Description:
It is a single chain. With 382 residues, the protein is an all-alpha fold. It has helices at residues 3-24, 27-48, 54-72, 77-86, 99-106, 113-123, 129-136, 140-154, 165-177, 188-199, 205-218, 244-260, 265-277, 284-297, 301-315, 317-324, 333-344, 348-361, 365-380; strands at residues 181-182, 363-364. It is globular.
Amino acid sequence: MTGRVEDLLRECAPQVLGALVRRHGQFDLCEDAVQEALLAAARQWPSEGVPDNPHGWLVAVGHRRVIDAVRSERASRAREERLALLEPPPAQAPDTDDTLTLLGLCCHPALSPPSRIALTLRAVGGLTTAEIAGAFLVPEATMAQRISRAKKTLRGREFDTPGDVSHVLYLMFNEGYTASGGDELARVDLSTEAIRLTRMLPPTPETTGLLALMLLTDARRPARTDAAGDLVPLAEQDRALWDAAKIAEGTALVERAIAAGPLGPYQLQAAIAALHAEPGETDWRQIVGLYELLDRIAPSPVVTLNRAVALAELRGPDAGLDLLRDLDLPGHRLPAVRAHLHERAGRREQAEADYRLAAGLTRSLPERRYLERRAKHTREWR
């Protein structure tokens, strides 16, 4: 399958699934039908050419697969006739993007927050069950059951009560920007899709802030790894590699979002990202002030962790460590930050221990390599 066809199918898949679920209301049945339609396209398009309306072609094929499945299950004649009447001529299938509609269903309030994220990553992000299980740090069989239960919960649900789409897109972007596991630091396709979907959200101060945050963060991606694929921390990145167009757009969006209404967590995070993107010396005093405000509006262990890093830049590493003293945050990020601050304070033995602890907790190979290098460096300089 050519790269162009593969990219087109990946782009169309969530749109087609959204269209079929909107029409038939059976998530699991429609998902199977979409997979069959994509398989048919993968076989035919490279040799016969991509149709003029690929989205409509896939919707029509998927629709026929749904009808075939209903017939095979001996559905009532009345339901079969109703489905047949709904079938659009392939050439006239509406070439619209139902991805956001599908996303709204995946974020349905009837689902638990972890299930919303998992189903979104599966249906909209295109991740496999194994990849999602890795992101959640659970066995693949457990994740398969979770996704299956989520699809059963959505059976017959309408699209009129979407859940917190912004939060799910935020988490999707974060997983794309820094993958929780694997050989690569980032999943560019996932973060790119999160940005695309966020552009489709109704413009409010917070959704505008979320888009700005994504753009300003993603602008740094070209400088985050070196030629060997190893992690390059923010302070050591070559800013000439940052995407100037994304920074310009993101900065303009931040200004618009802050001027439009009361401050929310995405606007504040975007403002912090914009300060990091400014040329010259970083204004850590202003960044600390924004983190303090964010900690009052939307407190969380991650906010406290980031606030500690900024505070250490302003007042020294011990000020940051004092803030982290009672913090409870699972995973590798807390010991990694502690290690960095202990190293800056000259406590190299403690830094090495925390670096090694963090390296043992991360499932990301680039992050593990970086943390192990830091541990080795602190040991050599003791």
